[in-house]
Amino acid sequence: MKARFLSESDVSRVIEMAWEDRTPFEAIAALYDLNEPAVIRLMRRELTAASFRCWRKRVTGRVTKHARLRSPDITRAYCPTQYKHR
After folding, report:
1. Average pLDDT, stretch 24-33?
2. What InterPro entries does its record include (predicted)?
3. Which of 9, 10, 24, 86 qualifies as a FRET site for 17, CA 20 to 30 Å off?
């Protein structure tokens, strides 16, 4: 995927989505046109070395980060109670 300029708020949101367990890389690709290797490069650039290692350890092999590996029963990217509206 072609790299494009992301605003500070977009970079922040991509980082947030990358840390979320239930948000697959495909969702990030759909919203920001960044495939998994591009997200990894962004995370390496934006996080401290220790935080990047922690994140990579966390997401490596995590089934929920890849839509094709998820159960077909899961049709959402986040828990219904994650975003509480008042």
Report:
1. 90
2. CHP03643
3. 86
